[in-house]
Design goal:
The protein is α/β, with parallel strands linked by helices. The chain contains 15 helices and 24 strands. Bound molecules: thymidine-5'-diphosphate and magnesium ion (MG).
Length: 485
């Protein structure tokens, strides 16, 4: 007995550990460790562990969630057969802003949580204010909580939107307990929290914006939304490498992840759906930032093709698929003899490594050499394309510039390019073609496999199917006058 007294709470070396345990949380996967490591053993990310102090004696947020957290509040669930569960046809809350509802798959779902990410100043708060205004006008109780801006600032912005959001309920608050109290009182159907990084729970010991706070705050909102059947939209900031700040687990926690993108110097904004538990992903909505807020762009292809130089050397029109929408884009290439040093390959809006592969295929299978040339490729309008269906168009644009032979005017190019120089079939060619038909295109170069399914023409567009890269060059590019090449 007397021996144990020496190792009691006052007993020297143990005291600092009890004052608040230090843990290291991975910003990528959210796993926690007792010591700092250069590489996360769970997800193998380098330099992702961040120090985090745990206030209580429990073993970090994980254990806390299970014991004192709010997750278990509704009691234990019973096991049931799937067929016996009533289908709660949760009516969607349509905002009335068509592009916004479309990417959500028809509107907000009651009890769901949406994470809206994007660079600072891209227009997230503006979008929320507009959506909130329309919802309020439609008689849907909406509460906008802002921890970023004062009431005066938001009021000013609402003036820019011609006061359309005047009836919206607003609360400048960062303390989530106060927010919960306001929700209790107002009983809104929709809650906006701008932003999750400024929100805090006083029961969590770390600063707002820290990993633990962001995670626990999001969890609190999640519980609030689920228990009341209220839809919530959380605004999240994006770090400089384009990731949503906070643990990756935030994206796993919410039902829908939207990301707002756009070039700083261009006025249109693309709202992209990255995850959707209630609808399809990869849907996009296009908006234009005007003096009086965001405006929907119902026909984005027209916008991106606005100044298209159809039929010019090095310019080819491709159709990328974004969700269920085909988007026509102009690809421009400039190939110029290298005068000095290493040949340059610069690609804007298209993966540079993929371009390198296309150049190799073009040389080996198409016989068009660019090893002594600088190659510049750019997707007009500052868009970013990732879909492989645009490969052939990019390859043709490069070949056109290199050979100085213009592509046929009013021609759409579709096709994925394989390493063997084969032109592979694309998904949903009919969607892409009908978008092209609407914009007055008259011919299309597409994979032979797709052409076989579609026939010789479609909606007034003459189709020519090609099997290989070499054939595509012959079919797609006009002959140079005089040379007969
Ligand atoms: P904001 O919604 O504050 O961005 P975020 O919440 O994503 O940080 O967007 C502000 C930007 O949008 C700002 O640069 C000004 C511009 N803007 C307009 O061009 N027109 C408008 O009507 C409004 C309200 C903002
Ligand atoms: Mg904002």
């Amino acid at each position: 007995m007397p021996r144990e007294a020496g190792s009691g709470p006052g007993g020297g070396p143990r005291t600092p550990r009890r004052a608040g345990r230090v843990q290291f949380l991975c910003t990528e996967c959210g796993d926690s460790f007792g010591q700092w490591l250069g590489r996360c053993p769970s997800c193998n990310a380098w330099g992702s562990l961040k120090e985090h102090r745990v206030a209580d004696a429990l073993d970090g947020p994980r254990a806390r969630r299970g014991t004192t957290g709010t997750v278990g509040r509704t009691g234990r669930a019973a096991v049931v057969r799937l067929g016996e569960i009533p289908v709660d046809s949760a009516p969607r809350i349509a905002s009335g802003i068509g592009e916004f509802d479309r990417i959500l798959g028809g509107g907000l779902v009651g009890g769901s949580v949406v994470l809206l990410g994007g660079d600072p100043g891209i227009g997230k708060s503006t979008l929320l204010l507009q959506v909130g205004g329309v919802l309020t006008t439609a008689g849907i109780r909406t509460l906008y909580v802002s921890g970023e801006e004062s009431a005066g600032q938001v009021r000013l912005r609402s003036e820019r939107l011609h006061g359309t959001a005047a009836g919206l309920h607003f609360l400048p608050e960062t303390d989530l307990e106060a927010v919960a109290a306001a929700v209790e009182q107002l009983d809104p159907q929709v809650l906006f929290l701008d932003s999750i990084q400024t929100a805090y729970l006083s029961s969590v010991a770390s600063a707002p914006g820290s990993l633990a706070q962001v995670r626990e705050s999001a969890l609190a909102v999640l519980n609030l939304a689920k228990s009341r059947g209220m839809a919530a939209i959380l605004v999240g900031h994006v770090t400089k490498d384009g990731m949503l700040a906070g643990p990756k687990t935030l994206e796993h926690m919410v039902d829908v992840v939207l990301s707002m993108e756009g070039e700083r110097y261009q006025h249109y904004r693309v709202l992209r759906c990255v995850k959707n538990r209630f609808g399809s992903v990869h849907e996009i909505g296009v908006f234009e930032m005007a003096d009086d807020g965001l405006r929907e762009v119902p026909n984005p292809s027209k916008l991106f093709l606005g100044e298209s130089t159809s039929g010019a050397v090095g310019s080819v029109v491709v159709a990328g698929l974004e969700g269920t929408r085909a988007l026509l884009m102009e690809v421009q290439a400039l190939v110029h003899e290298t005068r000095y040093g290493m040949p340059q390959r610069v690609s804007t809006g298209y993966d540079a490594r993929r371009l390198a592969i296309l150049l190799a295929v073009l040389a080996k299978r198409g016989g068009v050499e660019t090893s002594q040339h600088d190659v510049f490729v750019s997707v007009a309008g500052g868009l970013r394309v990732e879909e492989p269906g645009v490969d052939l168009g990019i390859l043709l644009a490069v070949a056109s510039s290199r050979l100085d032979r213009p592509p046929h005017p009013k021609m759409l190019v579709l096709g994925e390019v394989g390493l063997g120089g084969e032109v592979r079939r694309v998904s949903h060619p009919e969607w892409r073609l009908s978008e092209a038909a609407r914009l007055g295109f008259t011919r299309a170069l597409l994979p032979a496999a797709n052409a076989r399914d579609l026939g010789a023409s479609r909606e007034g567009i003459a189709l020519s199917g090609v099997q290989a890269v070499a054939e595509a060059l012959g079919e797609g590019l006009q002959r140079r006058e005089g040379t007969g090449s």
